[in-house]
Structures are given as C-alpha cells and as structure tokens.
Give the backbone structure.
Amino acid sequence: MTQQWSAPTADGPVDATVPVPGSKSITNRALVLAALADRASTLHAPLRSRDTNLMVAALRSLGVDITDGPDGSWLVTPHELRGPAQVDCGLAGTVMRFLPPAAALAVGEITFDGDPHARTRPMTTILAALRALGADVAGDALPFTLHGKGGVPGGEVTIDASASSQFVSGLLLSGARYESGVTVRHDGKPVPSMPHIEMTVAMLRQAGVVVDDASPNEWRVEPGPIEGRDWHVEPDLSNATPFLAAAAVTGGQVTIPGWPAETTQPGGAARDLFERMGCEVTLTDAGLVLRGPERLTGIDVDLRDESELTPTIAALAALAEGTTRIRGVAHIRGHETDRLAALVTEINRLGGDASETEDGLIIKPRPLHGELWRAYADHRMATAGAIIGLVVDGVSVDDIGCTTKTLPDFPGMWAAALSLPGAR
Ligand SMILES: O=C(O)C1=C[C@@H](OP(=O)(O)O)[C@@H](O)[C@H](O)C1
Ligand SMILES: C=C(OP(=O)(O)O)C(=O)O
C-alpha cells in the first residue's frame, strides 16, 4: 500500500549524527555466500529491510537455516538446496540476479517472480548465461522457472553486461560451486557499477575462493569450497547520501558514524562528489563529517561507476547554482524505474529545468515550487523528493513506504535528523 508523505522543510541548518544501517549490497552477497558455504556463517550488523528480508525468505525456502542472533545478527547454516520453492524477488536486483545462479545448484523446480515493475527489469542476459553454463531455465524475464538438477557444469560464457553489473556478480558468486567453476567475459559497451563487481571479487576472496580478475572484462572463479565465516557489514554508504544531502542543502553539518576508510561500496565516491559541489567533507574518528556550503555548485560528472547515486546528485543539482551534467548512466533506465525519465518528469513538475540525454541528465537552475513528487516505487526517487522538500515548501512524496526496500524506517530517521517533535 502506498503512503503519501508531506516532506518536512528544515527550519535551519540540519545538524545531526545519523547512524546508517548495513549495506544492502554487502548483506545480500554475504547471505548468498553463506548459503553456499562449507560451514555456518554469521552476518554482523546486516541490513534488515525488504531487499535483504526477501533474500533471507528465498534462501530459507530453498532449505537454508537462517536464525536471528543477538544484536540483530543473522546466523546462516547451509544445507543442500532443494525445491520446490517459489521465490519472490520484490523489486530487488540483487535477489533476481544473485539467487538464480545459486538456485541452479538445487534439486527441484523453483519459480521466480516479483513486483509488477520487476517483470520489466533486464534478465535475459543472465538467464541465457545460466543456460549456456548447463542450467535448465525456462523464460527470459520474471516470472521464470528453474529446474534444478543438483549441480551445474559451469565453464566459460561471454555476455553483454552493459545493462547491469549484477549479471557478472550473480554468476561469480555461485561459480565456485559449479563443476568447472566459471569464466565470465564481457563483450559490449562498458560495464556499469564496476565497484560492485570489485566488491563481489573481494568478498569471494575473503571466503577463500580463487578469483582471477587480472584481465579487463574477464573474471575467472576456480571451482572449490566457499568458506563459512564472520561477515561484518559496513554501513550502506549510498543510503547515507540523502542524510549528507540534508546538510549540503541547508548549510548544516551531518556526521555518519562508521564510515570506512577504505571500501568497495560505490557510495564511497560520495565524499568526492559532495566536495565538488561545494561541501567540506572530512573523515574523522567520529565518522564522515559533511558541512554544507552557502550555495551548492553544479558539476559535470560521469556516474557510471556509482550510478545508484544519480537520484541524490540530481536532487542536489536541482537546488544548485549553475548547470549539472550527469553522464554514463544510460543503464539506470533499467533500475527500480526508468530513473532518467522519472527524475526529469518530477524535477520539471516542481518547476525545474531537467532534460534527458542519451546517457544521462542536464539539470539547470530554476526556482522550484511545492508539488506532489512521484516515487515510482523507487526508494531513491522517494529520498530525492525528501531532499528537495527540505528547502522547497509543500513537497509531498506519493509513496514514502517504498524506502523500506533498503531502509527499514526512512521517515523516522529523517525526522530524527531534523529533530522534529516526536522523532526517535
Ligand atoms: O551488485 C549490487 O549490489 C548492485 C549493483 C548495481 O547495479 P547495476 O550494475 O545494475 O547498476 C547497483 O546500481 C545496485 O544498486 C546494487
Ligand atoms: C539499483 C538499485 O537497486 P537493485 O539492487 O534493485 O538493482 C538501487 O538500490 O539503486
């Protein structure tokens, strides 16, 4: 059920410390690796939100034992995977692309479906790759059915991963459990979101898997066991960006505790992006501290590597002085919604000046006015509306509930950051 929400305006500079829950991308990778491992694993500080709860539910339906530990951890005990099972992917790219390669190792029939828009997200490439590696999959998009044979021959496959890095990550995450391992070659326009593939490779190596990524656009995963271990999940740096943006647009100061000095999360690039827009950003013992400027400045930026930050950067751009040009993100037309079309429509509905290019956006300064901001079931569209609503009176977001995709309580966190009455 959608839930309309009047975006609160800030009555002064936002000054807050905002602890951010765990990374969606790390949590859902750790869950898959733990499910395929040779012994039990513990996920410490995992994200508990719709995308990760769907992954847990799907793995449980395949026979994996996942229990709640103290302090919100998850204890994952692997078992042989088996169908029949029905997997609900929701709108989660990480579930629809990471789980089928693992489920192909099961015995039995497994069906996959998801939200209405999930049925339009690109899937053909990874399902064709699974077939080429020896899995039995009927269908080219959600809904589809996988007939698990208890094992996958594996081997070499060439794919065009320009629509999503998750095609590569999905195949690599399960590849060590295929008889011949897996070699994935990319042939096509550049692969987006490369840090997410680096995250996959780094986590596989942490689990003792041998991965060769020395050649560009080629990844080799040797067959062998995946080690069970303790996974410590970093805060979700992309989810931190709306809160950093709250300081950026109000001339305030926001601290995100636990910001890692080094990370494979593409959200790590936020530091540089906010600086380029005029913010002062420092990594301190207390976390990442961002101080907002008097006026933000527009930037010309290629976000191919950190494309999931586009809605936040676009919201900042709509409030900045000077033109912003965002390049390298054609593929986000296949994200939770067509994000290029959605951002242009919603910024312009508020009186702004945004236009679509072949691979991105141009956003020029123009005064905005209050209006309904549509989220299109996209968590990052919803939070982009919240950012603009901080400084533009009368903005409502049509569906704030969709933020539960990756944040269990965005409205509560937002109210607390703004010190609103009744906030936690
Ligand atoms: O592997 C991951 O965890 C992700 C990869 C990226 O997908 P795309 O490569 O489709 O952009 C990113 O945008 C998404 O939010 C999470
Ligand atoms: C693209 C995103 O999600 P997904 O994992 O569903 O692809 C996102 O969170 O911005």
User: Anything to note?
Assistant: Residues 25, 93-94, 164-166, 169, 192-193, 196, 307-308, 331 surround shikimate-3-phosphate (ligand 1) (CB under 6 Å). The CA atoms of residues 240 and 380 lie 11 Å apart. The mean pLDDT is 97. The domain at 24-232 is CATH 3.65.10.10 (UDP-n-acetylglucosamine1-carboxyvinyl-transferase; Chain).
